[in-house]
Design brief:
Blueprint: H1 2-106, E1 113-117, E2 123-127, E3 130-133, E4 136-137, H2 155-170, E5 177-179, H3 184-198, H4 200-206, E6 220-223, H5 234-242, E7 248-252, H6 257-260, E8 265-271, H7 274-283, H8 287-291
Helix pairs in contact: 1-2, 3-4
């Protein structure tokens, strides 16, 4: 019995020791699992927050970028619309200015002092030192412009030339202005140069005295060449046959030298406006004949 008791006690002690070791192992394991769970939970809770933060940052950045892009596009669109409106306004203004210029340059309703009538019955109207007949500015050897009159090219004149130039180009015709507006002083220098070279009598047939030049009116120009051979070029022929359609006439036609006071100038065109230019062209007369006026220095 004592022997068995000893073994019984030893067996109990071994069992207690085994139970104690297992409890210690399971405790560590449990403690380890809880620690891993916290870490995982921490990482899990940390990563979403970090991801959420990044996502929010990205969304804010994207949103901000989209807003900036949208704002930029809106500004560009607004700017484009404003430019378009401005361009349309300028074009409309330019067109109105051109129409207004043509109207004022060819209108018969010029208010001024009526100083007489032409042989054809037209009123001769003088306003601010400028002579008008049927609304057209008249400049020749008889009728002068004030010394300080310097309008530059008129809007209607230059616009009409640009349209004519563009249409001519489509037909293979190149037209260029080689001499346009000239001031009184410039014309004086030009005329004096011709007098010095050829003498006054001959100079008076090829150049206007200062104050008598159509170039000073801003309504006339020389095109392409100052050589008489220009009349036989395709450009010269086209100009003579078509310029009236755009409001111009060949101001000093061939065979009219004794009436205009100048030699034939196939390159010199004068703007009258479409309506009057057609009438003069259809008549086959020079401007002096059409209105019934003279061109003679006093």
């Amino acid at each position: 019995m004592p022997k068995n008791k000893f073994w019984y006690i030893a067996l109990i002690l071994c069992f207690v020791l085994i139970l104690s070791g297992c409890s210690y192992h399971f405790g560590d394991a449990f403690s380890s699992d809880v620690s891993m769970g916290d870490s995982s939970s921490s990482e899990s809770s940390s990563k979403p927050k970090e991801s959420s933060s990044n996502a929010a940052s990205d969304e804010t950045s994207d949103s901000s970028s989209e807003e900036e892009t949208a704002s930029s596009e809106a500004e560009e669109q607004q700017s484009s619309e404003e430019e378009s409106e401005s361009s349309s306004g300028e074009q409309a203004s330019s067109q109105q200015s051109s129409e207004s210029s043509e109207s004022s340059e060819s209108s018969s309703a010029v208010e001024g002092n009526v100083v007489g009538k032409t042989s054809k019955g037209y009123d001769i109207v003088v306003k601010d030192g400028i002579t008008y007949i049927d609304g057209a500015v008249i400049v020749n050897k008889t009728y002068t412009l004030p010394k300080d009159y310097a309008p530059g090219f008129t809007g209607g004149t230059y616009k009409a030339f640009q349209v004519m130039q563009a249409d001519a180009k489509k037909q293979g015709i190149k037209l260029e202005i080689i001499s346009g507006f000239r001031s009184y002083q410039t014309q004086q220098n030009t005329y004096n140069g011709w007098v010095k070279q050829y003498g006054k009598e001959y100079a008076d047939t090829i150049s206007a005295r200062p104050g008598h030049s159509e170039h000073q009116s801003g309504l006339a120009m020389d095109v392409n060449s100052l050589k008489f051979a220009f009349a036989d070029t395709k450009e010269g022929i086209w100009l003579a046959e078509n310029c009236w359609k755009y409001g111009f006439i060949i101001r000093y036609p061939e065979g009219k030298e004794d009436i205009t006071g100048y030699k034939y100038e196939p390159w010199h065109i004068r703007y009258l406006g479409k309506e009057l230019a057609k009438k003069v062209y259809d008549s086959g007369l020079c401007l002096e004949e059409y209105f019934g006026i003279t061109s003679e220095y006093k």
